[in-house]
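Board notes (copied after class):
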Amino acid sequence: MAVQYSASSERPRVGIGRPLSRGAAITLLVLGALLTVLPFYFMFVFATHSRSEIFNLPPPVWFGQHAATNYDSLLTRMPFWRNLWNSLYLAIMSTGSTLFFCSLAGYAFAMYTFRFREQLFGVVLATLLIPNALNIVPFALMMQALGWIDAPRSLWVPGMAGAFGIFLMRQYIGSAIPRELVEAARIDGCSEFGIYRRIIVPLCGPALATLGLVTFIASWNNFLGPLIIFRSTETYPAALALRSLQGLANTDWGALLVGVVLTVVPLLIVFVFASRQLIAGLTAGATKG
């Protein structure tokens, strides 16, 4: 049912003339939160049970006693901590390089006036229209020609200046940072890179946090790229390594779920610390006239 707002009241109305009470609104929010949290809760619960217990009917709803056994089985089947380090390395390199180059490009597109600026920016945006599936074969051929097969740099170097990051930084810098501030810094004798380092970067905290969090999560969860590039188990990131545990008939679900839990925990920690900046970056400019 459509939610309507009355001019004389800030409470939402459901239907015609029937206000949605505060208690009902809170109940709906709690139910939505539970539906979001329950999959994570059962993931943690199932990681502490054996395979037979996981598939019991009804399934277990509280923690079991097989967490240590599942963890030992995980380490026996794969070099998990090496794979987790590979994921962390790729995520850190992708995030750091993307923040640097995309913020530089966004600064140039927002504050510089040069020939064919709008046309070049249009070309950058046009790359967003290309489906990722069309890039698989050219990407694999380019990496093979460069000799980067089974090399981690093949996953973070090509994406250092992504179109989404450039677009986000250009829009934020153009709307949040006055051009007069940059001109004043130039008059005072500040170098162009000094302006970027001392003015642009400190004032772009919300946008950088948003782009960093999105890039970190995308790199951490990247599956198709490593599947194409990597050949040895030691170079697998965690997502690809955990997928290798699944078989057609014999899958140790307890060990797999322990690995999933250990892989998800870093993302939850990053999100907890960066969520406020993420919200600020996504809502920046929303209240400006």
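Comment from the instructor: The longest helix spans residues 80-111. The two ends are 30 Å apart (CA to CA).
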